[in-house]
Amino acid sequence: MTTHVMAAPLVIAHRGASGYRPEHTLESYRLAIEMGADFIEPDLVATRDGHLVARHEPEIGSTTDVATRPEFAARKRTQRIDGQEFTGWFTTDFTLAELRTLRAIQPRADRSQEFNGLYQIPTLEEIIDLARRESAARGRTIGIYPETKHPTWHCEQGLPLEPSLLATLESVGWTMRDSPVFIQSFESGNLRPGPSVTSRCTSRPTTRGTPWPNTGRLRRSVWMPCSVIFRIRPSRPSVKDKILAAKQKARGHPRAFRVATATRTQNL
Predict the structure, then answer these.
(1) Assuming Cys at both sites, which of 31, 123, 137, 152 could form a disulfide with 17, CB separation 3.0 to 4.6 Å?
(2) Nearest-angstrom CA–CA distance, 114 and 55
(3) Annotated catalytic residue: which of 24, 56, 150, 154?
(4) Residue 142 near residue 134, CB atoms below 8 Å
(5) Rounded distance between C-alpha atoms, residue 239 and residue 79, angstroms
(6) Which of 245, 94, 222 has the alpha carbon at shortest distance from 148?
(7) CA proximity to 122, closest of 137, 102, 139, 141
(8) d(CA 127, CA 32)
(9) Distance in angstroms (rounded) separating the CA atoms of residues 71 and 113
(10) CA–CA separation, 33 and 135 (whole Å)
(11) Collapsed DSSP state (helix, strand, coil) of residue 50
(12) Set 14, 24, 51, 154: catalytic member
């Protein structure tokens, strides 16, 4: 894997400003950008009809109000994902239109619940549109740092993530090395260009787009233990000040630093 050396560290808003708004919503991403994030990080999962939406996991019982919707009660079931059993409601059992009727909630009891029920589940297209609009409005580049969630499992459902992801990036011209995009995954196979990306899915139909081109143009990264993350609590001093301090602390380090916003671990 190639390590890209950057002139300055980047602030990556992990799930957006998830300590302040329900995670993976446009408002969470927008607030993170306002706080100083350079990139917003959506976790991508598939709907039943092949659209990519932002949720931390395919199971959405804890991050949406689906459990309160009697019309979807029968969709609750147990699935095994990457060797672990989950019981709840899964994006792959819903069309995009159905998911759009749900609203995001804060999954953690120790964070504010006042914004529950206000925001929809965003699509990848909407996230890109937000990044482009904010870039134009603020006069600086806002990029996206999407993570493909459980790509092998999605293939097993007949819903591979990569073709739809590439098709969406191509539609906005974000397939060059200098495009404001990093693609990440806990699996390395789906980050490799060429046939290796789709070989896991040869018996599965793809719903949109084409496989990764074998050009090596797109930047891809794997989550690795050597990644350095400054975790920032929603506490005083202001998050924006902490982000700036983290950038200054990281400056000059040979690796690209990721600064994750609004998480719980430690103060800087």
Answers:
(1) 31
(2) 20
(3) 56
(4) yes
(5) 38
(6) 222
(7) 102
(8) 13
(9) 24
(10) 9
(11) coil
(12) 14
